[in-house]
Design brief:
Layout lengths: L3 E5 L2 E5 L4 H11 L10 H8 L3 H8 L1 E2 L9 H11 L2 H14 L2 H18 L1
Antiparallel strand pairs: 1-2, 2-3
Helix pairs in contact: 1-3, 2-5, 3-4
C-alpha cells in the first residue's frame, strides 16, 4: 500500500509511510505518553489525549503540500475543528497498515538480543 487519502473540511489529506522528519516529530510528541499494551485505534487515541490532533497533523499532509512547507499548528487546529472520532480512528488504523511499526520493533529486539549474545 502506497498511501491513503481522506477528505477533511473540503481538503484532501494524504497519509504515506513516515519519513525521518516525521519520525522525529512523532518521537518528540510521544515523550511521556504511555502507549497501551493493546494498541488499537481507540486506545491509542485515548493515550494521546489532547495530543491526538498534533499526532494526526504529523502523519497527514494536505495533498500537493511538501512536508517542509506544512504548518503543523494550522493543520492541528483544522483537524480539531473538522475531524470526527470515527475518521481519526480510521487514520490511526491505516497508520499501522502503512507503517510496520510492530515488525520494526521486533526486528530491533532481535538485533539487540543478537548483540547481547555476542558480548
Amino acid at each position: 500500500m502506497g498511501e491513503f487519502k481522506y477528505e477533511i473540511a473540503g481538503k484532501v489529506y494524504v497519509q504515506k509511510p513516515l519519513v525521518l522528519g516525521q519520525i522525529k516529530q512523532m518521537l518528540n510528541l510521544l515523550k511521556g505518553v504511555a502507549l497501551p499494551a493493546d494498541p488499537d485505534a481507540l486506545n491509542i487515541a485515548a493515550a494521546l489525549g489532547d495530543r491526538l490532533s498534533n499526532a494526526l497533523a504529523v502523519i497527514l499532509v494536505e495533498e500537493g503540500t511538501r512536508l517542509r512547507d506544512k504548518n503543523m499548528d494550522k493543520v492541528s487546529e483544522e483537524l480539531d475543528e473538522s475531524m470526527s472520532l470515527e475518521l481519526a480512528a480510521k487514520v490511526i488504523e491505516d497508520f499501522f497498515l502503512i507503517n510496520p511499526i510492530l515488525s520494526l520493533l521486533k526486528k530491533a529486539e532481535q538485533i539487540a538480543s543478537g548483540m547481547m549474545q555476542k558480548t
